[in-house]
Amino acid sequence: MSIDDNPALLSYTHRFPPSPEFGAAANASDPDIYDRAAADPVAFWEEFAHELDWMRPWDQALQWDCPHAKWFLGGKLNASVNCVDRHVEGKRANKAAIIWEGEPGDTRTLTYSELLAEVCKAANALKSMGVKRGDRVAIYLPMIPELAISLLACARIGAAHSVVFGGFSSESLRDRIMDCGATALITADGGWRRGGVVQLKQIADAAIAETPSIAKVAVVQRIGAEKAPVQMVAGRDAWWHDLVADASPECEPEAMDSEDTLFILYTSGSTGKPKGIHHTTGGYLTGVYATAKLVFDLKDSDVYWCTADIGWVTGHSYIVYGPLANGATCVMYEGAPDTPAKDRFWRIIEKHKVTIFYTAPTAIRTFMKWGDHLPNACDLTSLRLLGSVGEPINPEAWLWYHETIGGGRVPIVDTWWQTETGHIMIAPLPGILATKPGSATRPFPGIEADVVDEQGNSLPAGRKGYLVLRKPWPGMLRSIWGDDERYSQVYWSKFAGVYLTGDGAVRDSDGYLWLMGRVDDIMLVAGHNISTMELESALVEHPAVAESAVIGKTHDIKGQSPVAFVTVREGFTASHELGEELKKFVGQKLGAVCRPDDILFTADLPKTRSGKIMRRLLRDIAEGRVLGDTTTLADPAIVAGLRDKYASDEG
Ligand code: 6R9
């Protein structure tokens, strides 16, 4: 039997059904929801759209002219009203909307009524800067409350926001501002990161020296002049605190068309310039509201914490729009997980009695590496649901998360989605589905996902292929900003009428989906399609391995041969013997064809700033090629170090 017909991942057969108590109390508890949504997905989404506040009802739920979708046509609404005003008018005026914790330990809590006043003041400040409905506003801020407030303020006045992650360079900021023609920028003097200061205003100044479209800049004072000196350009720059001090705490929300732009968010494609992913208002809000409600099972009593940065889509959809549309209490943390110490996350959970915790596999694997004693020393019993996003979660990491963080009691929702999809596409409904470590389980109700071969034919269970989405969904990207041709070409041209995700997947005999990572990362070893994910999952099962990244290196006979980059867990040392042991370990688990030819130990793996392993660069290193684009790397020194090490190990 070839590996293709027996994906190694499917040998992980543990199942974790929801507890009867969880199931009975869950927001989604009736398994019939799947069939009901499949029978009429548009009507299913309309049910959730009806739970939002509309200023004018829609005339038509969906217009689908492939690849262009419009949702809730004719409907008018405002996203900030749905995330804030309606909770103030309801019973949540004094409920905490945002519990913020700064890296140095300062904290700030905003109730829904306080958030409303802040959003209105910020909206009026934007107006005073000359920002109008239909304009684009660039936002380059650390994870401080003003970031969430800025998004909502833009939404309130009908300006589209384009958030640029606060760790990006001035070139990245410049390119993103130019691409969307932003007329105003919101930034800060600086932000805290691992006890140091990132000089955001200085970086922003370098960017806007080359972006004539920016007429006004608002600057939040997060750090102070001593550690973050700034130069204010007269007529262009103003302090945020001055702008809002003069602003009224009331601001009439714009009645936005359902299809008006809510935001643009850039994702770096594997090649070429970043894509401005274009999202609109009514459909996006419906999608994030529904998925946050059912997948995270949000209740009024929850304290919900998503550890992502708002600079990524996860922060847009599941720190700001999704949870706030549900009236949730959200924890927001400014800094690094190891500042001042490696237990910071667990201390935050303990302190704020977090009930729902949503993080990324890269973080989970790092916590495993740091050791169980850190979470074990904290009271994590407030937790009732755990989530994962960003990469496939290896079964070993899933089980650790379940046991060590969840105390073996709480469900895990592994959520697959993309900047382009806007909201969660594949994830368990935690009160209904039994979960399996390493599988994102089933598509969310109303979503039709499939696994297809090179010709676009559906594949049976057990066969790896391309993950595609067959029906439009409300939060889908509407296009690539300024490049509709590229939109059609990238997502809709490989298979007629279906959306190409770019990920590989396999279905098991229960219809559960197992994600295999980007299709570009899948190796072809001696005629077998082997996903790097399978080898990585096998490697992290070894007690010495914290994290690994596997790539296929060109090989004369086999086509490609697997090479593994490995970081070891605390208490273990890298050695030639350990390398040989790991090769044998993988060979025994997955078969000789999967045995890595090389194992290279490293202290760190090259990752994007959102924590995804950049295998493309590892391939360049292994092939001795000139390194490709490294601008999205979190720490470029890691790659340089690895390249030297690889060359000397080979030599
Ligand atoms: C939300 C987000 C999208 C890509 C996606 C896939 C990977 C995300 C995943 C996952 C396996 C999961 N991905 N979640 N792979 N299981 N639960 O991360 O958006 O930054 O656009 O990345 O991330 O490869 O295609 P984005």
Overall shape: globular
Q: How many alpha or pi helices? A: 20
Question: What does the radius of gyration come to?
Answer: 24 Å
Helicity, as a percent range: 25-40%
Average of the residue pLDDT scores? 94
Identify the bound ligands.
ligand 6R9
Q: Helix/strand/pairing class, anyone? A: alpha/beta
Low-confidence stretches: none
Count of spatially separate domains: 2
Keywords:
2 domains, 651 residues, alpha/beta, 8-stranded mixed sheet, 7-stranded mixed sheet, binds ligand 6R9, GMP Synthetase, Chain A, domain 3, Rossmann fold
Brief sketch in words of this structure:
The strands form eight sheets. Strands 12-11-8-6-7-14-15-23 form an eight-stranded mixed sheet, sandwiched between helices. A seven-stranded mixed sheet has the order 5-4-17-16-18-19-20, sandwiched between helices. 32% of the residues lie in helices and 22% in strands.
Structure in words:
The protein has two domains: 502 residues, 3-Layer(aba) Sandwich (Rossmann fold), CATH 3.40.50; 125 residues, ANL, C-terminal domain (GMP Synthetase, Chain A, domain 3). It has 20 helices and 30 strands. The strands form eight sheets. An eight-stranded mixed beta sheet has the order 12-11-8-6-7-14-15-23, sandwiched between helices. Helix 4 runs antiparallel to helix 5 and helix 7 crosses helix 8. The site of ligand 6R9 has 23 residues, from helix 11, strand 24 and strand 25.
